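haha ok so turns out i had the wrong file open the whole time. this is the CORRECT one, sorry everyone. sequence first:
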Amino acid sequence: MGWEAMTVGSAIVAEAPARGAGLNQVIGLTIAAAVIVALMLWRVTRTAVIGSTG
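then structure:
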């Protein structure tokens, strides 16, 4: 029982970081996309305001 439990436990422990890394990658890409979209919108609105007031 001891060896089997340790093998299963180590497999679960080894698999957890891989899933976590995938999740972190998804979160990172989502944040990067949101930042890019926000910067584009900010530039568009800023140039539109400058153009209308100027």
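The chain has one domain: 3-52.
again sry for the mixup
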